[in-house]
Amino acid sequence: MKDKFDTIGKSIRKIDSLGLATGEEKFTDDFDFPGKQNLLHLAILYSPHPFAIIEKIDTTDAEKMDGVVDILHYGNTSRVLYTSAGQGYPEPSPYDMVLFDKKVRFVGDRVAMVAAETPHVARAALEKIYVEYRQLEPLFDMEKALNPDAPKIHNDDEYMPIPSVYDISKNLAAEVRINFGDLEKGFSDADFIIENTYSVQYANHCVNEPHSAIAYFDERGRLIIISATQVPFHARRITSKLVGLPIGKIRVIKPRIGGGFGAKQEVLLEPLVALVAIRNKRPARLVLSREEVFVSSRTRHPMRVKLKTGVKNDGTIVALDMDALMNAGAYGSHALTVLANAGSKVLPLFNKIENINFVGRTVYTNLPVGGAYRGYGATQGYAALNQQIDIIARKLGIDVLEYIKKWRIGEGETSPVFEALGEGKEGVKQFINSCKLDECIDRGAKAIGWYEKRDKRIRNGDKVRGVGVAVAMQGSGIPRVDMASAYIKMNEDGSFNLHIGATDIGTGSDTILAQIAGEVLTVPVDKFIVRSSDTDLTPFDVGAYASSTTYVSGNAVRICAQKIATQIISVAQKLLDCDEENLILDNGMVRNIETDESITFERIGYYAFYEQDQFQIQAGASYYGTESPPPFIAQFAEVEVDTRTGQVKVIKFVSAVDCGKAMNPKLAEGQVEGATLNGISYALWEDYKFDDRGRMLNSNYSDYKIFSAADLPDMETIIVESYEETGPFGAKSVAEIGINGPIPAIANAIYDAVQVRLFHSPFTPEKVLEKIQNKK
Amino acid sequence: MNGTFIINGNSRNFTFPSDATLLQVLRENGYSEVKEGCNQGECGACLILLDDELVNSCQVLAGSAIGHKITTIKGIGDIHNPHIIQDAFVESGAVQCGFCTPGMVMATYYLLQKNPMPDDNEIKLALSGNLCRCTGYVKIIQAVKLAAERIRNEG
Amino acid sequence: MPEWYYPDTVKKTLQLIRQDNTIIHAGGTFILKRNLGKLDGIVDIHRLPLNYIHNNDDYIELGGLNTYSTTIDKLKQIAPEHILIKSLFKAASPPLRNRITLCGSIRAFPIWSDIIGPLIASEAQLILATDLGEKIIPIDEYLAEIKQFKNALILAVRIPKDNWQSKYIRPSRTTFDYSAFNISILWKGNSKNLEDIRIVIVGNSKKYFHPMEFEKVLLTNPINKIELAEQIKNIDIKFGNKNLGNGNYIRKLFDVMLERAIAEI
């Protein structure tokens, strides 16, 4: 294991930062392209009803409007079932959507789409489309979805493309079950039982850049799509299927993208712009408004978790029964996989529980649609588990930090859950190679002042302070599913082209992957010309999700760079006329460790191109993980509760994360800081409000509040380094895990302050005050 | 309607619908560095200087800005000659996806002109009209402080 | 599509806004909420010389085109503790404060307004330009008959000068957020000997409220002898549901915040 690095572990400036800070780098809607003067702008007509059949659509008046070029709806498009979930093929999500359906299933569902010469005309034309709906009885309460008399939201030809439980006669979009040991016996052995119901609510990613896509034809008549997507290759494949154009005739380019967080792990706009472009032989553009992003794109899946744990007085959890119910909304994108993660990323953390039962179900309702959202099920599961652990520790009268340290999974250990619960496929057995959770807990506890504050209920007039903790693990890619590849070629001056499918969504993967290649080839990052996420020019990568980029794409880059190193040395060997064994790469040169002779990459480059036995130094490599080594995190919240108003203020928040070796510490911290603040805002304020007809009432930033800099608590991030042998230079992942702790840490801190427990986020002052007053 | 604006020092004449916002007019005429995030004046991605005052360009009707001076982020510094603020953002790791960055830089520029030595609280309030979902603001605040220090040292 | 006008006299302005389907553009932020494409005319009043501040012994007069930012900056020079500085600073983000004007926001008076409360408490007057000439009226009269002044232009705000102490209370979820309500408190004297007090609440179900009986109680007894919580419970004020919580919760919050504010006097 290497312990001294030249580029790895350095907070090197992200290679696109300056371009972004000067406004030079382009996002999807910023580009010029052939035929832009002929661009068609798209506007979408959405359903005003939660559940209805479209009896008739009359577009005659709209078609007559000056500047209206095309109008699409169920009557003039094919019915091809698909899932919009940006996942590998076959997607582990129900094929329950068509581009334009005859049924609408939530307020905000797509009814029709206008293509016009200007955005203004396109929007105006929407008002001239007359739709006759036959309304159906809607379903909003997910707890009622499985009832035999509940309205059936999907009841045509929808199906699940992989073997998995799927039953539209019950509104059941997904079901997951695992069972180990003997639950009944476990509970009978317990000294006490803790049973609670927790829930987390709807949320929006609030991506800085709304979803955007452009489609146009190049000079050879191929369809080019520029899209703000986390999954360019999945977008290409799914679009191909929907518009009937072969994959080879489509190119998808992801430029700079203004945030993803899972919102853009979805093939939402690409088929629409593609279809209009193909039908009209003109470029097409669709950019969602903020309201459309809130209502009609994707959300966090709300989930209710019933958790029953049997515990012995020595702290052993002898039985755990988890019953999770998740709300898919109107369509089942990620309905199975988010659900599975609520078990698979959560239960192994306390791996000494012998008797486990986990039943998870995802059901349809006539509400906005859940999708991938940072944390991806783990957030929901940990909201429940971390509060339960706090309750158990308090009942036992011991410090919860000591309890966690005693019962958590450790290096060399495994859990039967890994194998039992995959993401649509079987899971993969794995052992933990690296885990520094104890150090995370110790350093985080010190930073928050745990022992000075816990149980002390420090008062300031009517306000009381408390501290709480939450721990989590996530994963690093989906084992045996996620694949990444890289291509490198050397230029004669010793610079390299690095082509990666990996998708930089602001995370800095372009930079980090160059750092990895640079470490192997002993050159700085600025020697790499990085091109990513272009389906024509870069090799395959599943895309930015499942915290896979550093680990999976990073390994692909490392392997590829090593192949390049081998080729470089083979040329050097000819030039230096010596044994290859004596040659090493050192600082952009090849050096003979015996004679100390060296030659530059530039010399090698010119030789290989022009002099003798000419060839292009180039290589490609792929990688898929056989395991998914989890990062670990300990997060601490200090809150101040106003006992007379119920207002909760987060005073300080500390996150201590073991992400393996941090490739670029500033970028790693940035991931944790962003995820954590998102989690805090989610814990306190974010929620979807609906009227009694399922219409979202707060689909704008005035009503749906997220934190600004003015609301930032004192936030500290501690990177605790471990070394993951299977990862590139010891790396695991870091992008999602930070969002898992805030809800339970804050709930636990509120309890520490005022001895009331809130089981259902968001923890609004109204809820907190009611609990405080009921306690009296 | 028709109007002339002075954008980053250049006189530009545009034709636009009379209900267009300044954001629309700017983006439709090549100033793609001004971003549209919410179109409601809440997220700050569209911030520009209008006659040296920081405003949300989505909340300004183009008709009311005719003849006035507009500064976008490209008027502050470019890739060959970045402003100290832009460089400080890069160095501090304050740029993740970069979509909020033009607005953040404009708000920082405006702040430091009025208050060259802001404390943490003043910085936070000055940026309260800029939303960022990527960074959690921690490194953005560090970038502002770094920029303030470097501008002061430059004299 | 609306036609734009840029009048340079008040007379021309009044003529233009008398037209059908024509609106005034001051800062422009409130009118953006409308469907502008359906209007016939937009009257941009920025050529009018309404950006001034006059400061004499009796009052401060601020021209209607002062933005929240220029108002704060100008008041800081003259009366750094003025309640309007406290309220306007919290009213919106910095770029929005650079656009929202006094005349625009008084006329629009949204339920979350941060300007109306302090002006009512200060017993401010508005200088209006109407078809019948210039009028000076107290702000609460203006608000009571706001429809009558539809075609009037708010030229300036006149705030009487006095040696008030002030507090401004504004609960919201995050820093940049519309408030659930706001309370403007002006007083003279101290808790043992309160000479005068004015309390104005904005954001209740009737838009604004002046708890006169509560003020009387405060003036006729020393504050530390009053059962504040009891007295406040008797205030007949209701709140609708807000983003911060439902109407019942907001009432409870109001009671606590008012009690704390008075106790701090």
Q: How would you characterize the overall build of this protein?
A:
The complex is a heterotrimer of chains A (776), B (155) and C (265). Chain A is 27% helix and 23% strand. Chain A has 776 residues and is an alpha+beta fold. In chain A, helix 17 (665-684) links the parallel strand 26 and strand 27. In chain A, helix 9 (378-396) packs parallel to helix 18 and helix 15 packs across helix 16 (601-611). The model of chain A has no long low-confidence stretch (mean pLDDT 97). Helices cover 35% and strands 15% of the residues of chain B. A five-stranded mixed sheet of chain B has the order 2-1-5-3-4, covered by helices on one side. With 155 residues, chain B is of the alpha+beta class. Chain B has two domains: 2-75, Roll (Ubiquitin-like (UB roll)); 84-154, DNA polymerase, domain 1 (Orthogonal Bundle), CATH 1.10.150.120. Chain B has five helices and five strands; from the N terminus they run E-E-H-E-E-E-H-H-H-H. With 265 residues, chain C is α+β, with helices and mostly antiparallel strands. Chain C has ten helices and twelve strands. In chain C, helix 2 (68-78) runs antiparallel to helix 3.
How is this structure best summarized?
Chain A is built from 19 helices and 27 strands.
Helix and strand sequence of chain C: EHEEEEHHHHHEEHEEEEEHHH
CATH topology of the largest domain in chain B: Ubiquitin-like (UB roll)
**What is the CATH first-level class name of the largest domain in chain C?**
Alpha Beta
Discrete helix count of chain B: 5
Helical proportion of chain B, percent range: 25-40%
Q: Span between N and C termini of chain C?
A: 54 Å
**What's the multimeric state?**
heterotrimer
Average pLDDT figure of chain B: 97
> What does the average pLDDT of chain C come to?
95
Strand content of chain C: 15-25%
Residue windows where pLDDT falls under 50 for at least 5 positions of chain B: none
- Give the full name of the CATH homologous superfamily of the largest domain in chain B: Beta-grasp domain
What fold name stands as the CATH topology of the largest domain in chain C?
Answer: Uridine Diphospho-n-acetylenolpyruvylglucosamine Reductase, domain 3
**DSSP, total strands of chain B:** 5
The count of helical stretches of chain C stands at 10
Count the domains of chain B: 2
- Categorize the overall geometry of chain C: globular
Name the strands of the widest sheet of chain B in spatial order.
2-1-5-3-4
Most strands sheet of chain B: 5 strands, mixed
The largest interface is:
A-B, 57 and 55 residues
